[in-house]
Amino acid sequence: MLIKRLRESGLFVIIQILCLSYSLFVLVPVLWSSISSFRSSIEFFTNPFGLPSTWKYQNFVYAWNQGNVGIYFRNSVFITAVCVTIIILLSAMASFALSRLKFRGRITVLFLFISGLFVPAALLLLPLFLMLQDLHVLGSYVGLIPVYVAYSFPFTVFVLVPFFNVIPQDLEEAAFLDGASYYQVFWKVMIPLAKPGLIVATIFNIFGIWNEFVLGYVLISKKSLKTLPLGLADILMKQHYTADYGKLFAAIFIALAPVAIFYVIFQRKLTGRLLEGAIKE
Amino acid sequence: MNLLGTIGFSAGMQSKQQQRRVLKKTRSPIRVVVFFLAPALIVYLAFVAYPVVKIFRLCLFRWRGITRGTQEFIGFGNFVKLIHDPVFWRAFVNNVVLFLFVVVVSVCVALFFAYIIARRIKGSMFYRATWLFPNMLGDVIVASIWLFIYHPTIGMLNYFLSLIGIDIGATPWLGQSSTALIAVTIPMIWKFAGLYIILFLAAIQEIPQSFLDAARIDGATRWQEFFHVILPLIRPTIAVAIVFLMWNSFSVIFTYVKLLTEGGPYRSTEVLPTYIYQVGFKYHEFGYGSAISVATFIFIFALAALVLRMLMERLMRGEKGF
To answer: For chain A: N or C, fewer Cβ within 10 A?
Structure first.
């Protein structure tokens, strides 16, 4: 019995050590780069790992203004807000139709959306580029927004349809019997009841659009239109020549901070049941 | 329920038309279907379906000149070229190796950690929150951070190795062919393993305690419990998790390779999406680039067809989403 208990507590210690090591593996790079955003560019060579000798907050001012990070940030907020609003509205309408309405071709259309999960945008860069060029919207938001919206549908519909599926038929019928129109049923019955699904879909899409890189990289070339990931990549590729690390890490931190704040707020939702619900088979 | 009671009461005085609409389950009016479905469907067809069709046409042409140059129909000529292109095969193999390595390591690491914190050990909430965090960071941020971890002189990796006594000088992890491909995979694992842990953990905790008790009573060791009880039961979750990585793996892989190595050194980290990008936008061979895309499509769609059926069944069973 004693031996067993000793073995149990030994196991406990080992488990804790493993978990802590993995946590360090995750946290140290994030903390190091956050702290480094206060380091002067010279100190990156003299003292890359310790705390900065002087906390150089000017890195942020410099990155925000001269490094255009301010513009990138505003662009990202704008693009994310516009795209996610459109994505959620249109996907909710489509998922409602695909889940609750009865019409010929329903299964085909559902299949069409879901098969989009297997159409990687990264393989369609060439036709998309040519298509937007033909439409004269290459390099503008008029071209970028519909592309972002379109490539978010498969995942969003995939998440939302099961949530609409489980809304009891009785509620819908009851509403119809009370004389509600389809539009009223959608707004007053379906949307409130599918809210957990809509929240999951919104959170995922916010992260998705905020972080999107590949499509933007090909479709947007003007500096004034770049979003944070595009701008950050720009600074990153140029640092080979300038070695202005202070500015670069300040830019990294500015990109990282909103995600971290958002994560801390929604962490319970994300690690809790909602995420499980969204993806669980 | 209050709501239902009220409505049940009022059900007696409904009009005939309303009665038919509900009870006979007729088709929905076409204008309603169009109103709800058309906006999403039109955008989707225009920007996802149309480019797919277009790429199957593009791949049959040879292009001359910058983007809008003259096009010449050459049939399957691009595919003949592709079969004899060593860089394509290099990119293909690298792509497969990279993907498999990321998936296998992430799944194994995630299964391990999900299993050991499944019994609500001290601090498991903290661990979960910490481990999922990198998954929320954008690929560009993760790549930027890791570019500096791998930095030969000011990088944390070499510093850490020298601290534990392995002093191998200023190793350029991303700059030498022997280590570059593996070095590109680590940031992806760093990012994705956390999500897998959360998903697997949820699946493990869903297993009825009675199953595990039964195994215990039958004298199963922890090892047996894991491989013979838990693993078979959470297999569907693992499958879905892999699919979700597969779905955006090309974008992810493109981002990391582009930012960390640009496909180098000597194409040792060249992958399909970066090669397509190069052929299309650097060499302006849109036809050949499209042919590489199409070949990749056919390859993944063969795999996807299997999974797609499973996903469709899930949506059509009307199964509960959570």
So the answer is: N
The reported pLDDT for the residue numbered A241 is 63
- Look up residue B151 and give its amino acid: H
User: Could A44 and B154 be called an inter-chain contact, meaning their C-beta atoms sit closer than 8 Å?
Assistant: yes
Q: Residue B73: beta bridge partners? A: B61
Q: What is the ipTM of this complex?
A: 0.87
Residue extents of the structural domains in chain A: 58-279
Task: Say yes or no: B114 and B50 in one domain.
Answer: no
Q: What angle do CA A251, A83, A66 make, to 5 degrees?
A: 25
Q: Do B199 and A276 touch (CB under 8 A)?
A: yes
Contact assignment for A233 to B149 by CB distance below 8 Å: no
Q: In degrees rounded to 5, what are phi and psi of residue A201?
A: -60, -40
- Whether the CB-CB separation of B144 and A232 falls below 8 Å is answered with yes
Confidence (pTM): 0.85
Q: What is the pLDDT of residues B58-69, one digit of tens each?
A: 899 888 766 666
Facing residue for A49 by CB, picked from B156, B318, B320: B156
Question: What is the CATH code for A58-279?
Answer: 1.10.3720.10
Min mean pLDDT across A121-135, B98-112, B208-222, B281-295 is at: B208-222
Structural domain contains residue B234? yes
Nearest to A174 among B7, B19, B27 (CB): B7
